[in-house]
Amino acid sequence: MEVKKDILWRVSLCFLGIVALSLFIIGKAFYIQQVQGEYWKSMSDSLHLSYRTLDADRGTIYSEDGSMLSTSIPFFDIHIDFMADGLREKEGKRFTTNLDSLSIGLSKLFQDQSAAAYKKQLQAGYKKKDRYYLLKKKVSFDQYQALRTLPLVRQGRNKSGFIVEDMEKRLTPFGLLANRTIGLARTYVDNNRQVVTQNVGLEKTYDSLLKGVSGKRLVRRISGGAYVPVEGSEIEPENGKDIVTTLDVNIQDITQTALMRMMTDNQALEGTAIVMEVATGKIKAIANLGLMPDGSYFEKDNYALKTSEPGSTIKLVTLMSVLEDKYVTLNDMIDIDGGVWMLNGRRIQDAEKSPKSHLTIKESFEHSSNVAMAKLAYTYYSKSPAKFVQHYENLHLTSRTGVDLKEEFRPMVKNPKRKDWHMQTLPSMGFGYEVMLSPLQILMIYNAVANNGKLMKPYLVNKVEKDGNVLTAFEPQVLNEKICAEQTLHQLQECLAAVCVDGTAKRVFKTAVYHAAGKTGTAKVNDGNFKYTDGVYQSSFAGYFPVEKPKYSCIVVIKNKPRSAQYLGGSVAAPVFREIADKLYAGDIEDMPVYIAKTATDSIKYKWSGYSSDTKNILKEMNIPFIDSAAKEEWGYVYNDNNTPGIKALAVNENQVPDVKGMGLKDALFLLENMNLKVQVKGKGKIINQSLAAGQTIGKGQTIMLELD
User: Domain of 194?
Assistant: First the structure.
């Protein structure tokens, strides 16, 4: 009995303990729910809820005429919460009812898979109870608008479970046009293996204005590590401001096309062309092209802002210095030593042979004599080099231009106090070496000469806007009211105009219907990648037009491939300037000064020879009446008969050299090779000279040299 009582006592005690423990647990649970419930709920939320940054819509960059140069377009990622109350209620009746019609609508909208495939995809997601199922990535705005009208989706997020995440993509609608200046988003991986996006160009300079103020979105962590936005808990971002530039899309297109054409034809390494409005300093176009590994060209760097030894375009500063300081006049003579000057063992040589051994100062500038400019700098400033450098400072060439781009290089103009200043520095600076300047800085000086001596700060942005309202407007800024005396200015203008009439750019502009002024430049490149001995030349031309009332200034700088056949500034850079100027002059003809070009003697007054029937057909096609004196003779030549073209027979004898002057190469080759003559050709155009005289008896195996022009 005692044992039985002892067992019953122990069992009862255990039972009472279990009851007490149960009561304690129930009480504790009640306490936690009712008393501490809010606290633990907030703790749970803090572990599963977090704020994510919402990027603001980035502002748009416009051209001066209102064209979008860089803008953001929205796109959307579409997710579905298959555990949404609206989808699950009444055993998923809403989902089942709309499934077929939704699948058909998605198939028609995206056209990437059949309605059956979409139905199977949606059923699988519903079955898995996926809380953040990715249906579609990067949906366009138009597609998103159409999606919102589809069955089930149009019932709203709570009932459909559809979750939309909006993002944006930066686009440049005009593609390559001014792409590097407007700005690119460059993505790279940093040392911490983090993907970093870095803007350049205007996108970088005005990033703080363009990007706006970010907002916040509350998201909840769900199974699988995904985050679902909590509806109604967003802090809206403040969209970015818009930038209106000085660029003109039409001028930019003209500039880039002309630069691309020359660089492609000459297989150049890199190049830039800038067009500036003379009166204001507004940059209307800025093209930068670099050779890519596949042989194409792209705006991969802003060469307009990179410094280099400019070559002969800087001779304008040398000429201005000696004229302003009254050391010389334009009519003073200078001995150029046959185009080669030995200075303390150093050979200074002209790039192009001069027509005379002694030139006036004006002629030496027209023909771009390195010897003359080196002599001027050395002769008049060797005892006071600081006086020469002071002219650079007055022209703001010793500092950056301050244009609206942060990647502008710092110029290098040597000072006599520097350790690397030596006796050859001054003459070198005289013709464009031992000084590092950017194309934009050079253009700034030529623009000042065109602008009657007023030096303008170049700029790229007109105004900053928000919702069409102007927040900040930028006005033209004068850096120097007068870069030199009025007399000096007129002399500089005279010399720049003469370069295009009688100097190194004569051939380029001889047929222009307007007057241009400028200076060619050719410099050997020594930039770290190439040495002077590698045969790489930088071709340049800087100037303005029309001379009578300058509207635009322009500079073209092209770095050629090693040992390029064409490398002189007059044959590489000047033609690009001419093409740009031609099109801008034609486009603004109403605002341009009227210029009556000298009427060239009509070509019919010259002797043109060739196949008679071809000549007659051409005249007939052009509705030009002519006098036919050639009858049925195979070969003939055109002459002028009282301002009417006439055709006479050309004597061709089997054993005598014919007169092929005035013929095109095709006709001449046919005629001469049929006479068993070996033909060598020099030049292009029509034949102006032949080495064997007309009428001379043809010898066996003779060679005839033809000169064309």
Answer: 51-242
